Amino acid sequence: SNIHTDDAELVKFSEVLSNDAFLDCQSNGSSVAMSPDGTRLVYVCFSDSTSYLVLRDMDNFISTRMTGTEGASSPFFSRNGDWIGFFAEGYLKKVPVRGGVPLNICETRAGYDGCWIDENTIIFADAQVGNFIFIAHEHGRALNIEPGQIRHRRE
Questions:
Q1: Rounded to an integer, what distance in angstroms lies between the CA atom of residue 45 and that of residue 28?
Q2: How confident is the model over 94-135, as pLDDT tens digits?
Q3: What gap in Å lies between CA 21 and CA 17, rounded to an integer?
Q4: In sequence order, what are the beta bridge partners of 92?
Q5: Residues 6+ apart with CB under 8 A from 5
Q6: pTM of the model
Q7: What residue ranges in the chain does DSSP mark as E strands?
Q8: What is the distance between the alpha carbons of residues 135 and 122, in angstroms, rounded to a whole number?
Q9: What are the tens digits of pLDDT across the range 28-85?
């Protein structure tokens, strides 16, 4: 693992949302994610009857609404922090941290709690199919993972 908790520094901050917006805590999965290097925070905001992603650089007070992320839930960062994965409109999607058009990775009925395993593989859960875990490959296929198929390996 590249995370060294001995050197971790506690960071406190506040985030002010607009008057008509609130943090979406109603959906499956987490509504907030921190980049692996701790420099960025992404969260799901809800306003005008829709959710969307907001990205904040932790070294300043600027938060930016990420275009094209309407309907977003359960965001998570890629291992290198260059991408944000999320679920919206029946798809697992990803969007570049620097901005751009979100890309559909694969269909999912009710996906949540995604995690990048490597550059091309994401594991996530789908609440509509009995909380089975799936792997989404860059090629757009989602495969069911049977119990015992994945073994955790410490590095």
A1: 14
A2: 999 999 999 998 888 788 889 888 887 888 887 776 556 666
A3: 6
A4: 87, 106
A5: none
A6: 0.79
A7: 22-23, 32-34, 40-47, 50-57, 63-65, 73-77, 83-88, 91-96, 103-107, 111-118, 121-126, 132-137, 142-144
A8: 6
A9: 667 889 999 989 999 998 888 888 999 988 888 788 889 999 999 999 999 999 999 9
